[in-house]
Structure formats: C-alpha cells, structure tokens
Amino acid sequence: MACFVITLVATMQETLRITEIFYSLQGETRTAGLPTVFVRLTGCPLRCQYCDTAYAFSGGEIVTLDSILDQVAAYRPRYICVTGGEPLAQPNCIPLLARLCDAGYEVSLETSGALDVSAVDARVSKVLDLKTPGSAEVQRNRYENIEWLTDNDQVKFVICSREDYDWAVSKLIEYDLAARAGEVLFSPSHKQVDARALADWIVADNLPVRLQLQLHKILWNDEPGH
C-alpha cells in the first residue's frame, strides 16, 4: 500500500494542467512568423481587461510531462512556446521548461511578470510582460524580475492608450530595459490603439524598441488553435 501511495504522489508531481497543445506560426515576439508548437497551461491569477485567452483560466486536462514531451515531439518542431494563462502559476512548469531545453528545442516562456522567474532555466527566452495601467493589473508587476533578464529575454508592453505609451517609455528609461533584455516589444492593444499611431510615436521618440503586431489576429482573427 505504501508503495502505491508513493507511486501515485510521484505521478501527480510530474503532471501539469494543459488547455491545449497545437502547432502554428508564432504570432509575436522575436520569432514571429516561425512554425512553433504552443503548450498552453491552464490557470491565471491575473484578469487583464484585454485578455484574449480567458478560455484558459479553468478546465484543461491533467497531462504528464512525459506525455507533453511526446506530443511536442510528434510535430518535429524547432521552436516551442510555453504560454497560458500564466504558466508559472503551476510549479511543474519549471521542470517542463528544462526538459524541453534538454530535448534540443528553442524554448520561450510567455509570462505576465507577476510571478517569480528566478528559477526559469537560463536557456529559455523569457517574454516578460510588464502590465501597463490600461491593463487593469499594473499593481501586479513584480519588478524584481527585471534583475533576472538577459540578452536571451524579451520585455513586452501592451499599449492601451497614449497614457500607457508614456508610462511604458518611463519604465524603459527607469530600468534601462533596452540594455537588460535582447528585445523590448511595444504592442498595440487590439482595437484600443491604432498600430500606425503607435508606430509614429515610436519613430518620433526614436525608441530602441520593436513594434509588435500580432500575426495570429491578422491571419486567423483569434480562431482557436492558432
């Protein structure tokens, strides 16, 4: 009986709750346009007003790490994106990231920036989202995470207004983000900020940032599985 309990606990410790695993083009970040396997974990402690993946807040399926690796391998991909929800809300996200790197994939992690990233494998490209006031979750930013940024990482701002843009510029300067991370991404919030207007602001201020448009919204209009 003791052996059975130990085996059961060990098995539970090697699982994650997964909303979906699918193969598509990366819609954003520095690998935009490249075929990528997305592993979407279930659950998120934040409620950003522009969230387009609320379906990942709950539900999902309990899957072992071994099964996740097998499903990913079936696509024969080069790039893997672990996303959510908020992936780091599940502790077993950390060993999953390491195992994906060990398997030879180029791995990125999309995280809200509200949870500690210090344990994330250094081989993973962290895409750290700094929440603007317009997100309705600015108070959740964990600025200690900035200390863990490297050239392999990316910082993302979703801009909801001119006020958000000015706030993002102030954080860019305050934390010297262009020097800390490999990429700083400014993305217009869908249907809230005109992409051309954001482009004009960036050019006018000569910012060391990349304008990011979400290809999946342009190509597939947020259809599931893309």
TrEMBL record:
<dbReference type="InterPro" id="IPR007197">
    <property type="entry name" value="rSAM"/>
</dbReference>
<dbReference type="InterPro" id="IPR024924">
    <property type="entry name" value="7-CO-7-deazaguanine_synth-like"/>
</dbReference>
<feature type="binding site">
    <location>
        <begin position="25"/>
        <end position="27"/>
    </location>
    <ligand>
        <name>substrate</name>
    </ligand>
</feature>
<comment type="pathway">
    <text>Purine metabolism; 7-cyano-7-deazaguanine biosynthesis.</text>
</comment>
<comment type="similarity">
    <text>Belongs to the radical SAM superfamily. 7-carboxy-7-deazaguanine synthase family.</text>
</comment>
<dbReference type="InterPro" id="IPR058240">
    <property type="entry name" value="rSAM_sf"/>
</dbReference>
<protein>
    <recommendedName>
        <fullName>7-carboxy-7-deazaguanine synthase</fullName>
        <ecNumber>4.3.99.3</ecNumber>
    </recommendedName>
</protein>
<feature type="binding site">
    <location>
        <position position="40"/>
    </location>
    <ligand>
        <name>substrate</name>
    </ligand>
</feature>
<feature type="binding site">
    <location>
        <begin position="50"/>
        <end position="52"/>
    </location>
    <ligand>
        <name>S-adenosyl-L-methionine</name>
    </ligand>
</feature>
<keyword id="KW-0949">S-adenosyl-L-methionine</keyword>
<keyword id="KW-0004">4Fe-4S</keyword>
<feature type="binding site">
    <location>
        <position position="85"/>
    </location>
    <ligand>
        <name>S-adenosyl-L-methionine</name>
    </ligand>
</feature>
<dbReference type="GO" id="GO:0016840">
    <property type="term" value="F:carbon-nitrogen lyase activity"/>
</dbReference>
<feature type="binding site">
    <location>
        <position position="83"/>
    </location>
    <ligand>
        <name>substrate</name>
    </ligand>
</feature>
<dbReference type="Pfam" id="PF04055">
    <property type="entry name" value="Radical_SAM"/>
</dbReference>
<feature type="binding site">
    <location>
        <position position="51"/>
    </location>
    <ligand>
        <name>[4Fe-4S] cluster</name>
    </ligand>
</feature>
<keyword id="KW-0671">Queuosine biosynthesis</keyword>
<dbReference type="GO" id="GO:0008616">
    <property type="term" value="P:tRNA queuosine(34) biosynthetic process"/>
</dbReference>
<dbReference type="GO" id="GO:1904047">
    <property type="term" value="F:S-adenosyl-L-methionine binding"/>
</dbReference>
<keyword id="KW-0411">Iron-sulfur</keyword>
<dbReference type="GO" id="GO:0051539">
    <property type="term" value="F:4 iron, 4 sulfur cluster binding"/>
</dbReference>
<feature type="binding site">
    <location>
        <position position="48"/>
    </location>
    <ligand>
        <name>[4Fe-4S] cluster</name>
    </ligand>
</feature>
<feature type="binding site">
    <location>
        <position position="44"/>
    </location>
    <ligand>
        <name>[4Fe-4S] cluster</name>
    </ligand>
</feature>
<feature type="binding site">
    <location>
        <position position="53"/>
    </location>
    <ligand>
        <name>Mg(2+)</name>
    </ligand>
</feature>
<keyword id="KW-0456">Lyase</keyword>
<dbReference type="InterPro" id="IPR013785">
    <property type="entry name" value="Aldolase_TIM"/>
</dbReference>
<dbReference type="InterPro" id="IPR027621">
    <property type="entry name" value="rSAM_QueE_gams"/>
</dbReference>
<keyword id="KW-0460">Magnesium</keyword>
<keyword id="KW-0408">Iron</keyword>
<dbReference type="GO" id="GO:0000287">
    <property type="term" value="F:magnesium ion binding"/>
</dbReference>
<comment type="subunit">
    <text>Homodimer.</text>
</comment>
<comment type="function">
    <text>Catalyzes the complex heterocyclic radical-mediated conversion of 6-carboxy-5,6,7,8-tetrahydropterin (CPH4) to 7-carboxy-7-deazaguanine (CDG), a step common to the biosynthetic pathways of all 7-deazapurine-containing compounds.</text>
</comment>
<feature type="domain" description="Radical SAM core">
    <location>
        <begin position="31"/>
        <end position="222"/>
    </location>
</feature>
<keyword id="KW-0479">Metal-binding</keyword>
